[in-house]
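We close this part of the discussion by returning to an individual protein. The amino acid sequence and the backbone structure tokens for this protein are reproduced below:
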Amino acid sequence: MTLLEFARPVARTLCVGLTVALLLMASVPVLAETQDFRDGTPRIAVVSAFAPELEILKGELRDRSERSVNGVNFTTGTLEGRRVVLFLSGISVVNAAMTAQLALDRFAIERIMFSGIAGGVDPSLGIGDVAVPERWGQYLEMLFAREVDGGWATLPFFEYPYGNFGMMFPRSVTVSRAGADGPETRFWFPVDETLLEAARNAASKVTLARCTSDGRCLDRLPRIAVGGSGVSGGAFVDNADFRTWVFETFGARLLDMESAAVAHVAHANGVPFVAVRSLADLAGGGPGANQMETFLELAAGNAAAVVRAMLSEMPDRP
């Protein structure tokens, strides 16, 4: 066999293989990466911190389409009859604020809903329960005070609306927003009352999961609690003493690492906001080791179930 005779079938095989590969590539949706993209369709943003929280909702989308902007993947479609855009904020406050503002800049967002897990600090709530707070604060915005003569020396140019945890003194934040006379100083960012009402209406229509997919069950049926306070900060909390301080100081029902940052951005942009959080652990308050990995799937599913019910309950326009 000559070299030419050997090469012909090899070339034919390579061509066929390349054709098949190109056809397969054409059948897979490719995320378009664009810097000047703008979607003018009014939508509700549904946000989660990491993939296990969001995939539950993405699986229910109709008319699904995906696009990548600045490395963030946005999925548009219809959920419970509402036009939505779903995306991951990433974990913690800076990622959450950055992606929330990116979404507001690129999409015509009418409302923002955060869906995910949290650590419980209110002793009346347990793992699997879903909390929908009426306000959010950034409790780890703090002064770390200097120790002086057995006490702590605070600085006069901050406001300290709450008591300290050792050297750590919570302080208010300053935020600017359209239509305001100037920057305002505040600790709490309110949740939209219409969205809270949707949560109240949904509460009686949702049955929350009690058992994980591998058969580990809670000792009671989880419930939905609407109202109260939530706090967020850039720390994963698994400490009983700190948990007690957070509850006693802020009256918080739960803590997480993103919601207050998104509430801050929503407030600055004048967009209605709500966060729906299900407890996957007790932030150090449980009798044994942290249980987040055990109940993450259950809690994420419970939060998603409430979000879907709220979408069905809310009015057409803000």
